[in-house]
C-alpha cells in the first residue's frame, strides 16, 4: 500500500481523555478511531492487524475440528428466558433495544444460548456428535469500566467456539486439544512467553476453568505465577488447597498483574438442560449433550500485543500480526534514481507486504512515523545509500541496522 493513499495520518499527541497506552499509541498511529468511551472503529491499518490475528485463530480452530459460522447479533428474548439470563437484575451488562411493534431484542453479550438453540435443531443421535462450531463476532457489553482502551470495550470482537460432546470423557479430550491450540495462538501472535495457563473458578461441572493470562501492568487481574512450570492461579481461587492440589510451592509463586486474553470452560449440561439438548446413544437411550466454551477477545489481544512490545518510540508489531512486513521509506530527493529504486522494491516485494512511504515529507518525520507505526522491518532508500550501492535495513525491535545491496534484498 502506498502511504500517500492511506487517508489516516499519524498524530504527535495522544488524545487527552485516553489513559491506556494501547489506545494512545493506536490512535496516534491511526489504527483505530475512538467513537466514545469503550467504543472504537478499526481503520485500515488496525483492520489489517485484526484480520491477521483472526486468520491465526481460524487456522488453529480448524485444526482441532472447528466449523465456522456467523450467528446474529440480535437476540431473542424467549431464548434467554429459558436460562433465566434475560432479566437486567440477573445480567447487568445487556444492551437491549425494541422493534417497531414494541418487542424487546437484545444485542449479543455472549453466545451460549444462541448456539444451544441452533444446535438443538441438528443434534438427535450419537452420530451427530461431537461437533465444534465457532464464530467471530461483535459482542456488546455495557461494561461499568472502560479505561483500558481496546482491552475492555463496550463493543468488542471475539472468537467463541462451543463444543458439543456425548459425555465428559469425550469433552475432556477436546478440552486438552483446545488448550494446546490456544497456546499455539498466543505463541504465534507473539505473546506466548508472557502468557500463562491460569487456574480459575470452574462452575458446577469442573473444579477449574482455564484462563490464558498475559503478564502486563495494563491488565485488571491479579494472578500468582510459577515461572518455571509456566502455570498460574487467579487470585479469585487462590488458596492453600489449590496450591497443593496443583503440586505447587507457595514460596515459588509470584504475584503479578495480567490480562485475560482467552479462556476455556467446561459447561457440562448447564445449557443443554434448559434447552433440552439431548441425543440418543447406541442403545437408543436419551442423554444430555455435554458442552464447553472457548473464547478469545481479538481486540483485547491486539491491545495486549501493543502494551507488551511497544517502546518509547511507538508500536512494535511481531511479523505474524503486523499490518505490513516492510515499511519502505523513500527519502525524497531531486535524483530520480531514489524514487525509481523505491518503486522497483515496492513492486518486487508486493503491495500486500509493503507500506511504501512515498510521501513528500522530511526524513525525520518519516522515520518517526515508521517507528510509531511499528512494521518489523524498515527499508530506507535515500540518495546517500544509493550512492553507496546499498539499502539500509532496520529492525524495528532491536534497532539493528544492516546495509545490503538490492540483490541481497
Ligand atoms: P473479564 O473478566 O476480563 O471481564 P470475561 O470473563 O467477562 O472477561 P468472557 O465473557 O469469558 O470474559 O469473554 C471471553 C473473552 O473475551 C475474554 O477472555 C476476553 O479475551 C474477551 N473480553 C471479555 N470482555 C471484553 C471486553 N469488554 N473487551 C474486550 N474483550 C473482552
Ligand atoms: Mg467481563
UniProtKB/TrEMBL annotation:
One of its GO terms (molecular function) is ATP binding. Keywords: Aminoacyl-tRNA synthetase, ATP-binding, Ligase, Nucleotide-binding, Protein biosynthesis. InterPro entries: aa-tRNA-synt_IIb, aa-tRNA-synth_II, aa-tRNA-synth_II/BPL/LPL, Anticodon-bd, Anticodon-bd_dom_sf, Pro-tRNA_synthetase, ProRS_anticodon_short. GO terms for biological process: prolyl-tRNA aminoacylation. CDD domains: ProRS_anticodon_short. Pfam families: HGTP_anticodon, tRNA-synt_2b. GO terms for cellular component: cytosol. Residues 38-318 form the Aminoacyl-transfer RNA synthetases class-II family profile domain. PANTHER family: MITOCHONDRIAL RIBOSOME PROTEIN L39/PROLYL-TRNA LIGASE FAMILY MEMBER, PROLINE--TRNA LIGASE. This is Prolyl-tRNA synthetase. It comes from Candidatus Zambryskibacteria bacterium RIFOXYC1_FULL_39_10. The lineage of its organism: Bacteria, Candidatus Zambryskiibacteriota.
